[in-house]
Amino acid sequence: MSQIEDYQEAQQVLEQNDIHIMPSEVHGVISGLLACGLDIQSDEYLEILSDVFNEGQKFNSELKLFFADFYRLVTSSLDKDDLSFEIYLPNEDESQADQANALVAWISGFLLGFGLKQKNYGKLSQDVKEVITDFTEISKLDTHFDETEEDAQALYEIIEYARISTLLCFAELGKGQKTITPENKTLH
Known about the structure:
Order of helices and strands: HHHHHHH
Shape: globular
Number of strands: 0
Structural class: mainly alpha
Low-confidence stretches: 177-188
Helix content: 55-70%
Number of helices: 7
Oligomer: single chain
Mean pLDDT: 87
């Protein structure tokens, strides 16, 4: 069983290795990197994660496998046409506040990953710019929830917006980066 199948177990792996971040943030950084065009086949993500989360120090073998599991999780769902990509958050049994805190960490991670690879903000489409602006606002979300049905619905809508927005960014910047092939233009 992978250590990332259970959110709490993933959190323990990070803490035991003195990496003091949420698992959702790891997922967010990787998602942001891929959504802005990091080549899916690249292993550059490990260097980036070590710079961001481990002061540039190489990860031990346990953490390399752990992060590789996250990378496979993101790439396997992000690169499908079935919209199966999901944001990695604690399960629904956890409090809304815990889920909201993890969502804010995911959004912050996404923005970090996106920003590390996206060098030309001016050339982004209006839709992607809007996503980045919205994500910046979501990252400031007040995570105090009253555990009401109304709050649960609002949280669900934000999660769904983040999920679909990530797919939009990947479709525009990530997918296009690796699959562009010139058309054969033959003149007769």
